C-alpha cells in the first residue's frame, strides 16, 4: 500500500465528515466544487481508507480508555461518596445507614474471625500425617 504524503495525512487528520473542509484545511486549493472532487477522489483511495480506519480505531481506543477511567470509581472515590452520603442530614436515614455500612465494610470493621478451640485441643501435638488423617476421619483413638 502506498504511503500518504503530508497533505494526504493532514486530510485524514482533518476529516470528520466534511471532505471539502478537510481538503481545504489540508492545503488543497480550489472552489468548493473542486475541493469536493478532490475529497471524493481521496476518500476512494485504499491507502486513505486504511488511514481513516486506523485513525478511527485509535480514537475509539482512546474514547474507551477515557470512558472506562470515568466509569470506574477508585477506592478513595467510593469512600468519599459513602462518607458524603452518611453525613448528609438531608438524605434518607436508610441511605445514610447503608453508606455507613459500606464504608465500614470497605475498611474491614465487620470482619469476624472464629477459632475452633475444641479442634485445637483434640488435635494431637506433633502428629504424623497418618495420625492427622485418622483424627480428621474421627478415628483418633
Structure, briefly:
This protein has 141 residues and is mostly helical. Helices cover 69% and strands 0% of the residues.
Task: Describe the 3D structure.
The chain has 141 residues and is mainly α. Among the domains are: 6-71, Arc Repressor Mutant, subunit A, CATH 1.10.10; 75-106, no CATH class. The protein is built from 8 helices and no strands. Helix 1 (6-14) crosses helix 2 (19-26), helix 2 (19-26) crosses helix 3 (32-44) and helix 5 (75-87) packs antiparallel against helix 6. It is elongated.
- The run of helices and strands is HHHHHHHH
**CATH domain topology of the domain at 6-71:** Arc Repressor Mutant, subunit A
**Beta-sheet strand percentage?**
under 5%
Mass-distribution shape:
elongated
Number of helices: 8
Structural class: mainly alpha
How large, in whole angstroms, is the Cα Rg?
34 Å
CATH class of the domain at 6-71: Mainly Alpha
Number-wise, the strands total: 0
Q: Please give the share of residues in helix.
A: 55-70%
Q: Specify the biggest β-sheet.
A: none
User: What's the rounded overall pLDDT mean?
Assistant: 81
**CATH architecture of the domain at 6-71, please?**
Orthogonal Bundle
The residue ranges in which pLDDT falls below 50 over 5 or more consecutive positions are none
Distance between the termini: 82 Å
